[in-house]
Every structure is written in C-alpha cells, then in structure tokens.
Amino acid sequence: MQARASRQIGLVVVRISPCTRQDWEPRPTGFANRNYDELDWPRNTLPCDEFICNDVSSKVVPFHARELTANMANSDFNDGAAYERLMGRWSRLVGEKFLDWLAPQPNLAWADIGCGNGAFTEEIIRRCQPASVLGLDPAEGQIAFARMRPGTELARFETGDAQALPFPTASLDMAVMALVIAFIPDPAKALAEQVRVVKPGGTVATYMWDMPGGGFPGIHLFQAMQQLALPNPRPPSSALSTREALESIWTSAGLKDVASTKLSITVFFENFDDYWTTFTLPAGPQAKHIMALTDDKKAEMKDILRRILPIAADGRIAFTSFANAVKGRRP
C-alpha cells in the first residue's frame, strides 16, 4: 500500500490493489465506523482523512492523515469537513433567506468575512451574480476546504483577521459576516473594519444565531451541558446576537438606513445518533468538552438530551432555529 498526503488541502490518497485511483472516494473525517452511503456529502469534492473503495471485492483500508485531537489543536473550527456536517447545511438554509432579504444588485464586489469552509460564499456566487468575492477566515483548514468547493471558482480565499482586514479602504460594495460576529472578541473593531473597506453607499451586513433567545441549532446540547455543570461553550460575544444589540452597534458605527430581521429555518436530524454524531464532530468549542467526558458522563448527557429533544415517534428530530440579521449603508 502506498499513501500520499497533501498538507495544503488535507488530502490523503490510498492505493491498494486491485483498486484504481478512481475507485476511491472520500469519507468525511470522523466517520470511520459509519456507512458512507448514509451521509449526504458531495463525492470527490471534500478534503478528507480517509478514502473508501467502491470495489467491494477489495479490502477497505482507512488511512488517517491526522489524529482527531491534533485536528482540534489549532482552532475550534479548523476542520472544514466537520464544520460542513455540523453547521454548513444550516448555514446555507439561513444564508439563502439572508441573501433574499438583502436583495443585492448583480456585479458587485463582495467580501465574505469569516467565510469558514465557503458554504455561504458558494451561495453568494450562486444567487447574487457578483463581480468578485473575497473570502477571509483565520483557520487554514477551513480555507483549504472552501477552495475545494466546486461552486467557489470565482472566489479568492485567504487567511486573515476580521479585526484587521487586508483589503484597501473603500474597495468593496458588500461586506458581510455569516454566523461569525458572536465569535469575534472585539465585534465593534471588526465592524469598523467592514465600514472602512466598503465604498460610500456600500452595504455592511451580518446574521447570527440568536444565542440569548435560544435560536442556535445546538441549544439543546448547551442545555444538557449546563445541567452537567460543564464549561459554557457559548461564543464570547453571544449577547450581541439579539436584534436590538445588532441594530445598536450598526447605528453606533455610523451606518445609515439600518434595518434588521429574523430568519427562521427548520433543523432536522434522521435520529438521535445523527444528532449526537453531528454535535460531537471536531468543530466548535462544545466538541472538546464532550470528548473529554468519561463514558458514564457521555451516557448521562445522552439521557438528558433524549428527554429534552423533540424526538418524534419515528425517531426523527426537527425544531426551529433562528438567526437575527442586520444591514446598513455606509454614508
């Protein structure tokens, strides 16, 4: 067996006779014991740590490019594939509503600040006919994943800090942050940077799960962690995610025509195992705390979740999550 690893995009190609290179398909990180066909992932597009072989007559040999704990060491959100399963699907759903609400003109220059793995960037390109899109995120793993997306060819991605944007002053028409602002240590500084880089008349906008109002898709997990007296995994600027707080900071930044709205979506899981696997992936601060628990504590947490989650008779789980959005125009 031969293995070739690419540090740049996190790919591992495993060759084992009688399989050919084309026989292999990526399996997302962290799913070594799950049936690949159960997962709704675009094949041949994901940066992964394992490959499985389509030729069932051949032995399937997983090859781990990096340990799960190492994957979490540098950033709570460094694994683009894990984040795709954790939040990418919900980000797209609420992102569609956000873009409909913005109703931007075509042929604009955009910046997607805190772009993560490119899920929202892809929606900008697909729905808004932009002239250009710059994607910025501090996590190299997320940027690597974003570059692999088939729908992001128009975008240019780079690593960077939302509080010190590497873009020229008055160079953009649209500066947006999708599900990011609550994670930024100094949101006012990040907002000031957004205002700086847009042209006069340009739009600065964001949307964020309503953390105080219980709009986050992982709210039940947070409640279970609280009952077990575990560290609070909520992001540092959670209080800013209410409509009132967002309107206030946007107005204080000198933006005009400030408006806000609530964006609601239905979050769904096939069963409890789907829910548990999703929220224990190596993406987000909650995963570190849960992975450190003893088996008994994990079982206790699962019992709590089964009591508080809206689990239907057929085992499926569905509930409403909601984000708050705000927009303003640079004078």
What is the H-and-E element order? Answer: EEEEHHEHEHEEHEHHEHHHE
Q: Could you tell me the radius of gyration in angstroms?
A: 20 Å
Given helix and strand content, the structural type is alpha/beta
Tell how many strands the DSSP assignment holds: 11
What count of domains describes the coordinates?
A: 2
CATH first level of the largest domain = Alpha Beta
CATH superfamily of the largest domain: Vaccinia Virus protein VP39
CATH topology of the largest domain: Rossmann fold
- Estimate the global geometry from the Cα principal axes: globular
Helical run tally: 10
Could you give a short account of the major beta sheet? 7 strands, mixed
CATH architecture classification name of the largest domain: 3-Layer(aba) Sandwich
Keywords:
disordered N terminus; alpha/beta; Rossmann fold; 32% helix; 331 residues; 2 domains; globular; seven-stranded mixed beta sheet; 10 helices; two-stranded antiparallel ribbon; 24% strand
Explain this structure.
The protein has helices at 68-73, 80-102, 119-128, 140-148, 187-197, 219-227, 243-252, 272-279, 285-291, 295-308, and strands spanning 2-6, 11-15, 24-27, 50-53, 109-113, 132-137, 155-159, 172-178, 198-209, 256-269, 317-329. The protein has 331 residues and is of the alpha/beta class. The chain folds into two domains: 2-66, no CATH class; 77-217 and 232-263 and 321-329, Vaccinia Virus protein VP39 (Rossmann fold, 3-Layer(aba) Sandwich). A seven-stranded mixed sheet has the order 7-6-5-8-9-11-10, sandwiched between helices. A two-stranded antiparallel sheet has the order 1-2. A two-stranded antiparallel ribbon has the order 3-4. The longest helix is centred in the first third of the chain and has 23 residues, at 80-102. The radius of gyration is 20 Å and the shape is globular. The termini are far apart. Residues 1-80 have low confidence and may be disordered.
